[in-house]
Amino acid sequence: MFGHVDAGDPQFASQCRTHVRIPFMGRGSYIPREAYATRQLPRWTYVSVHMGSMIEIVANLPDELDVLRETAAGPDDAPYQFDPNGEHVERSASHILALRVRVEHEETRIKLPQDKSLPYQHAALDDLPATRTRSPRPLLETFLPPADCRHD
User: Fold this and answer.
1) Over 80: is that where the pLDDT of 105 sits?
2) Alpha helices, DSSP H only, in the chain?
3) b/e map of 9-22 (b: 16 or more CB within 10 Å)?
4) Helix-strand-coil percent breakdown of the chain, rounded to 5?
5) Could you read off the pLDDT of 116-131 as tens digits, one per residue?
6) Counting beta carbons within 10 angstroms of the beta carbon of residue 135, is it exposed (0 to 12), middle (13 to 18) or buried (19 or more)?
7) What is the pLDDT of residue 129?
8) Is residue 117 a contact partner of residue 144, using CB atoms and an 8 Å limit?
9) Which of 4, 6, 80, 120 has CB atoms 3.0–4.6 Å from 116's, for a disulfide?
10) pTM, 2 dp
11) In order of start, what are the domains of the chain with their CATH numbers?
12) CA 119/CA 35 separation, integer angstroms
């Protein structure tokens, strides 16, 4: 991974590298107690990935320009194309810190009603609005056995 920040950002003052934890959060949903047939408490469901990483400051101009090029990359026919010799790039380069992120480990966190019985799990799934454009339902369905599945 890569990116850039303002050179005046105090998080990177006098540091060449720093350890960070970067969370990536998927869609979450609130499941109200009314979704269940019993006195189940409301729940929040989510999926996330936490990455322990090392962020390194890119210290030389050619590599910094590579990071900026990667950051600005788009389709070949896009109206904007990165020009490392462009006036704006030359003017801005000294005010930018290019960063490379090296992932050291990943941890997935899944908070679903997986600790509940299958009827509870499907009651929670059934409560998710199907009309949302980016519903978490397809993802959650991959973690649940079918409602008619029997555990012996």
Assistant:
1) yes
2) 61-72, 87-92, 118-127, 137-143
3) eeebeeeeeeeeee
4) 30, 30, 35
5) 777 777 777 777 665 4
6) middle
7) 60
8) no
9) 120
10) 0.58
11) 2-130 (2.30.110.10)
12) 11
